[in-house]
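Model it.
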Amino acid sequence: MKHLEEYRDAAGARRYAAALAGAVTRPWTIMEVCGGQTHSIIKFGVDELLPKPVTLVHGPGCPVCVTPIELIDKAVAIASMPGVVFCSFGDMLRVPGTKGDLFSARAAGGDVRIVYSPMDAVKLARENPSRQVVFFAVGFETTAPANALAVHEARRSGLGNFSVLVSHVLVPPAMAAVLSSPANRVQAFLAAGHVCTVMGLAEYEPLAAKYRVPIVVTGFEPLDILQGILMCVRQLEAGRAVVENQYSRSVRREGNEPARGLIARVFKVVPRKWRGIGEIPASGFALREPYEGFDAERRFGVAGHSVDESGACISGAILQGLKKPPECPAFGVQCTPEHPWGATMVSSEGACAAYYSYRRTEKGASHEAN
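Modeled.
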């Protein structure tokens, strides 16, 4: 299959592995930001091809995983209200809050529906004028244009029964938070290609300059990732720290300017709390003043809710690249996809779910034999 098989070619992977072995002279730690990249790395064994001095750690690149507990609680509260149709992508339904998840809200009688686009929720609002339709607007910059379009269209059409529960987070501030931590061990980044397809490269250049870290915008297939790692290592070995674009078949420096314009029209940048990490300044989107009437938190009176996280789940350390899933005592034993303790096991992009699905010899993999 063109544009897929050539990026999964075993001989090509071995060539990149050999080039890495020839390029590296000292230990380096590289973080992939995107959960999709994490799954490719674990599924295809990319990390096992690397020379021993090169270590990959997993970052906060799964929007489901970093959605804070109080947002889940707010979603469950709204979904449980009479007259509400609560719409979400499927991953969010199983993320636990303090009072259950959206599946439990549906089991208790809430009208919770899985949709495949925010415009599906707009359509539902048009078709059900007597009901309040709420869309759970979760994601990084990648999903922001579609969510902005839905809100813009609802305002243009005068849909007073449509609103969004916004949990948008931004990648560059999260990278800065990782780099600013006293416990940081990350020396280079593989940046998420789909985010940069929308936003471009310019936001990453100040990070590379300030923290002296190479940042390579990378795709999602094994050869993409291996090439991105090689580009990082070559920069590290040469003492360089710039933004490079491995994913040039999809990413332009300026990004998608119409999409960026729509985001800027509908959203403003605000502080945002990240599950397992805490509040990061200027790391999220909220609706601008002309669109505030479509804010579900305000409409349903749940804006002030706040929750402290449990210390039992180590997903925060995993999301910051400080630990890996098999280091958690509960991984694969008490914490499984069927009974998740945290969002990194729930989400299809979560690091814990990736290890649980694809690693058979590491701690916790004995579930296959049970």
